[in-house]
Design goal:
Blueprint lengths: L20 E3 L16 H12 L4 E4 L27 H6 L20 H15 L27 E4 L4
Parallel strand pairs: 1-2
Antiparallel strand pairs: 2-3
Length: 162
């Protein structure tokens, strides 16, 4: 507030600020598990952006998708999409065994949701123990809320760099 009681509006960035970045959904990252996820490829992508002098990574909504698997048809503004959980991270944390992810072959050029959904939910069912009513096993920590909302937004992440 200013001294005369009016709300002081500051610009979101300093004068002369310039930056660049990219728009890329996490599912578009390379992965041996049929769909890009928030795992090693995402970390490598952030490093790549930093090395290229990019400052921003704008990701499309990361909520659970509904009809058509479009990020714009998210079922919730609060829940995370279990398909974006990295099996590598679960293996590293001891929640999944490497052999549970072996022997699967997926398209390298596009996401086949008919193949990825049973694979990712199968990982959860094999070794996940539901921790609460309605939870879905090892993926339950990212399912913050399953409330359906009428509005979703994109997530913008600032990369460390310039």
């Amino acid at each position: 507030m200013s001294d005369d009681g009016r709300r002081l509006m500051l610009p979101p960035f300093p004068p002369g600020y310039r930056a660049s970045g990219v728009l890329l959904h996490v599912s578009s990252l390379p992965s041996p598990y049929a769909i890009g996820d928030i795992g090693p490829a995402a970390l490598a992508w952030v490093d790549c952006l930093h090395e290229a002098g990019q400052s921003w990574w704008q990701a499309l909504p990361l909520g659970p998708t509904g009809y058509g698997n479009s990020p714009y048809q998210s079922l919730s503004s609060f829940a995370g999409n279990e398909l974006l959980v990295s099996p590598d991270g679960l293996i590293e944390d001891g929640l999944l065994r490497t052999r549970d992810c072996e022997g699967k072959s997926f398209s390298a050029g596009s996401v086949d949701y008919d193949a990825v959904i049973p694979f990712k939910t199968g990982c959860s069912k094999r070794h996940g123990q539901p921790s609460a009513p309605g939870s879905v096993g090892i993926y339950s920590p990212i399912l913050i809320s399953t409330a359906t909302t009428g509005r979703t937004g994109s997530t913008t992440t600032r990369c460390s760099g310039r």
